[in-house]
Every structure is written in C-alpha cells, then in structure tokens.
Amino acid sequence: MRRMQAKSIFIAGLLGLVPASPVLAQEWTRFRGPNGTGVSPATTIPTRWTDKDVNWKIRLPGVGHSSPVLWTQRIFVTAGEERTGKRIVLCLDTQGKTLWTRTFAGTPHRQHEDNSFASATPAVDERHVYLCWGTPKEFLVVALDHDGNEKWRVDLGPYQAGHGFGASPIVHDDLVIVPNEQDGTSALVALDRIKGDVRWRVPRKSRASYATPCVYQPKNGPAQLIFTSYEHGITSVDPKTGRTNWEVDVFHKGHVESAIGSPIVHGDLVLGACGWLGVRKEVIAVRAANAAKIVYKLEKGAPLVTTPLIAHGLLFLWSDQGIVTCAEAESGKVVWQERVDGGYYGSPVCAGKHMYCMSREGDLVVLAASKKLEEVGRMSLGEGSHATPAIADGVMYLRTFSHLLSVGGKK
C-alpha cells in the first residue's frame, strides 16, 4: 500500500507551471492555460483522427512529464536526461521546427519511479520563459529570453522531497510566483520577473506539495493568489505584499494528505484538492467572497493527482483511476459518475464541447463535456503520458514521454 501511495504522491510536478494573468487567444502560458482553467474556445480540435491527420510529431531530446507552453508562434517544452540528470529546454515554432535548445548540467538523484527530471511545466510571458527544478542541493528558477539567452537565475536553496521535484510557477503582473513547499524549509516566493529579485517570501509549515497556484479576481477588489496545501488548506495571498488575505484549513486531519492537483476558480468559488492514495481524497469548494466558508465537499471518486475542470457550468473530476464525475459547479450536486478505461496523471482540458485527457497507457480519451456521459473518441498516441494537453490558436499540442505532436487547427 505504501508503494501505491508513493506512486501517486510524487506526481504533482508532472502537472504544472506558467503565468496566471490574462493571455491572448493564441497563447497558452502556464499549466492548463489561462489561469489554470484548462478551457479553450477552440472548435478545430478533432475528436477522432488517424496518423495522417497529425500535423507533425517530433522526438524530444530526453523524457519528461511537463506540458508545453506557447507564446505567439513559439512553443517551449522541457525534457530530462535520466542517466545524467541534465535538463533540456527546447523551443520550436508552431510548424514543429526546432529553433533552439539549451542544456543545463545536472546530477542524478533519488526520485519516485514515476517522476522525471522534467516534470514541471514552464511559464512564459512576452519577455521570458521561466523554468524551475529542484535537487537536494538547489532549487533553481531560471529566466531565458525567447531566443534562449539566460537573463537571470535564483537559487532558493536545497529542495527536499522523497518523490523528487515538480513545483510549477506562474506569472502574475510583474511577478513570477514560485510555490516552494517541500520537506525542508518551505515558503511561497515572489520574484521580480525582469530582474529575478525576491520581492516577498511567505514562510510555510508544510511538506512537499505540488499544486500550481491560480488567481482569484473579486468583482470589487484587487486580485488574490490562491495556494493549496494539506497543512494550510486554501490560502489567499495579496500579490503585491505577500500578506495573507484569508486562509481556511479545510482538509481532513485524521490522516496525512498531500496537495497535488491544483486549485481552480469559478466566479467566487475556489476549489482545492488534497488526498492520500488508499485513505482519503477530497475536493472542497469555498466561497471566497463570504469569509471563505465551505460550500461543498466531494470525496467519492475525487482525484489525487489530476486537477478538476469546470466547463459549461459543470464540474468534472477525472480521477487517477479513471473514475469521471460530473457535478453542478455551483452546488456540487453529482449528475453522473462513471469509469473510463485507463490510468491518469495528466489533467483534462476542454475545447468547445469536449474534454480531452491523456492516459498513462498512451490513449487520448475524448468525452462530451455534458450532463450525459459519452465517450466520443479514443486515439492511441503510441506512447504513455503523464502530461496535460496545451491548446493555442485552435491547435492542440500533446506531449508523451518522449515526443511532442500537433493536431487540429484545420477548418
């Protein structure tokens, strides 16, 4: 049982990284795109295809679980070299042509068997692509310009976590927000996105957490950064000062848990997820505009690793074991709950009326994002994946363990 618990607990970093501020239609700048919602208006993503319908497919110079991010016509993705611990950053154009690569020296170190040296998704803005990786000796945040030139780097100190690294930053206004929650000294850190200077640091009493933060924008008030961890629950932080706006300790304390799936926002609802394999998994919604009071809680079929999705007024939970739950987003009332084949570490995204999620076995599964379960497509990717799709300018980009491919965009 402990082995199975470990198997899912490390995987946070597989899933996330990137900026949380508004982006243009052709940009997908962080883990799960605009503010981590995973939702795109694209209507040019096919629900079924064959190899001849793939725009292009390339082999990456290493393996990993991070997701691609995009700014205008440039794609940024990371890979790792398992034998040496090297980290590789790859920039391509949207036609699949490699524009440049940057390699960073590394040293192999202990991590979970399902982890990789490229599990965190980069963040990108109009100036830089921001990368994070952690080892027992250092936690580096590096900014490269869009041509691959290093502009700054910051070492946040040793990173301690038995399952390895997976933290994912976001960009908000003039800050790079880095959740450094680990088994060693933990903190939430804001860096100046131009110079890399530390603007604020919020100490945390927490163990390794892998959730990517998001932004809650009240109707009448300044933006708030949202973080989740087992020890703190759901926390709102003022991005300008690092001051805590509110914090609500919502996760069950009868057994240790871990925050792996990321928080999402729907209106003034903030949803956070936490759990421990074989013991308890929970998704909790709080009303941020009402003293952060709990609105509802979902436990049966809740995911541990994957991040929830809200589309068309519906909340979808796609669990690691393939249990998919559809509920009303405002009330949490379950509409349906069914199992689909496969195991999942990558999170679902929604394009138009359909949800897409890649399985660990190497299938892209397509479900209708509706009040009725309908599996409308299942395509083999030829290789497994722990990553989450990216969608930009009507095209979907899919990262498997060692390949990147492009589909859609054709009208």
Tell me the β content: 35-45%
CATH class: Mainly Beta
Q: Largest beta sheet: what is the strand line-up?
A: 1-27-28-29-30
Assembly state = single chain
- As a whole number of angstroms, the C-alpha radius of gyration is 19 Å
Number of helices: 1
The tally of beta strands, per DSSP, is 33
Gross CATH architecture: 7 Propeller
In one word, what is the shape? Answer: globular
Q: Domains counted in the coordinates: how many?
A: 1
Uncertain runs: 1-25
Could you name the CATH topology? Methylamine Dehydrogenase, Chain H
**What's the rounded overall pLDDT mean?**
90
Distance between the termini: 49 Å
- What characterizes the major β-sheet? 5 strands, mixed
Determine the structural class based on helices, strands and strand pairing: mainly beta
Helix content: under 10%
Corresponding CATH superfamily: YVTN repeat-like/Quinoprotein amine dehydrogenase
What distinguishing features does this structure have?
411 residues, mainly beta, five-stranded mixed β-sheet, 33 strands, 2% helix, globular, disordered N terminus
Structure summarized in a few sentences:
This protein is an all-beta fold and 411 residues long. The chain is 2% helix and 43% strand.
